[in-house]
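> @MW can you paste both from yesterday?
MW: sure, first one:
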Amino acid sequence: MPKLTRAEAVGAVRNPLAFIADRWTPDPRTVRRAALVALVMTVVIVVTGGAVRLTSSGLGCPTWPKCTDQSLTATSEMGFHGAIEFSNRMLTYVLCAAVGWAIIAARSAKPWRRSVTRLGWAQFWVVMGNAVLGGVVVLVGLNPYTVAAHFLLSTALITVAVLTWQRVREGDEAPRPLVGKAVVQLTWLLVIAAGALIAVGTVVSGAGRHAGDSSEVERIPVDWSMIAQLHADFAWVVVALTAALWFVLKAVDAPAGPLHRARDLFLILMAQGVIGYIQYFTHTPEILVGLHMFGATLVWIGVMRVLLSLRERPHSGAGIPAQSEDPALTAV
């Protein structure tokens, strides 16, 4: 292990990312895998967050940032619910580690692509913001509006994670469209409809019976059957737009990438629709609600992949040399 000079030690403290990048060059597959792990962990924490609510463990740790006023961690007296809630909080650190690994890998790649590193930092700050919002959810007693905001911010995190995963697999050339403007507009309409579908889904959850705790918890004051029907209507709009997009892509002889992504999204929507209708007619059993939440993340990932498949960005070989300065502020 070579000894560090005083100047090198000071530089490592001031800018650890540049210090690591000067001494390590990851394989491109390592960078791609790091971005994929960050995306997978984002989905995992969304699903486990749903498990907290579905097991009525939302107030298993009744305060934040500590678990109780006297303890940072869950205690044996708090039982199953305390263990579930505290475990989900701990997964935030695992997610931070995954995002941190993606940032380090992206920063150490040669040549350095500042745009990819910035996307990694964007993930990190969204994670931090959502962690704070999760604390607010606990402090306000699982207010359904804050719970909905918590899920929507998680969806924003998935968006950035998918974009990062896409960017590490392509170059930095200007995007080249693979389809015409009308197809792009139809896809954006699909994105908007899917966003509305997810937003209405949070209202369905906020008005439903899974409040997140066994105590009396405020619910969104709307008729659950009515809002569930609206959610189903949006789902059919998204399905119709996806089918229309697939047929249009076939008609214009689009490349295989967009066609395959549209097909994949359609299949995900079909599976998600089956789960949704079964849970509705069986009075929302916990396991099906959890599967539906997982499906919601896959739907949004599928929508983002369709959108990103409509263009390509070839590799140019351009980038920032490894020895370039990386001030802490500009790295963000």
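MW: second:
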Amino acid sequence: MRDVRRAAVIGLGSMGWGAALSLLRSGFAVSGCDVRADVLERFAQAGGRACATPAAAAEAADVVFVYVVNSKQVEEVLFGSNGAIEGARPATVFLLCATMAPSASIAIAEKLEAAGMLVIDAPVSGGHQRALSGEITVMASGSDEAFSRASAALDAVSAKVFRLGDHVGPGSQIKMINQLLAGVHIAATAEAMTLAAKNGIDLKTLYDVLRVSAGSSWMFENRGEHIVTGDYTPRSAVNIFVKDLGIVTSEAQKAGAVAPLATAAMQLFLEAAEEGLGLEDDAAVAKVLARKSGAVLPGMEG
């Protein structure tokens, strides 16, 4: 089977933008759709085909990456007015990259398959910079045919694709566990930095020591730098982890599992959102702890 060379990306946010540029660099003709006119203009300048609706983006594509925020948005861009399903041809491969509850991924996949489409449950991880360089991790599950048709596109956007099963669901399950760890590690990073600031420790020195020590994590290394520099430009916003940790705690309750650390982290993200920090970088949860502790972090007024 020939390599697929026509792709669409619906949702040109932090991760979707990186995927779209990676596909362009790999020689794909890429159609992109986003609700923001300025983003579509930038995408056109980068060499993509800017589309006002998901239907228009999907009509020229063999594979469609869906990079919106949550299951409600996935439903809307796929099945709503001018949704991708209206423009897509039979056997188009849809890659569901949003973090969703496994039950939501399965329900959406069933609707797509009933319409004659192929589906890969394909949540991603790695952050904005790895998305830009085409080096994300994909936690993927789906049929052999879907993977065969989408293999070149997946190679273009990722450093590693884990094939986790031949049906939709396992990808979303493992991404959920990843988000449990990610959210808890961000909260722990915020707590560590706040305690250090309260004790008068130089945060840059602390960061340089800990990032190469046993207490480090990928999230500490990444988000810790945001706190040190006081840069809360949203790469991944507080609201994302309100949603993702909500999935974790809800699914844990359904399974009869206890998740005390995820629950505590979620409460911190919720509090940050309630304080108006929902659209800031998720490291902004540190501001909540700093305020409670009477500490001042970079980027905060004394």
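> thanks! The mean pLDDT is 95.
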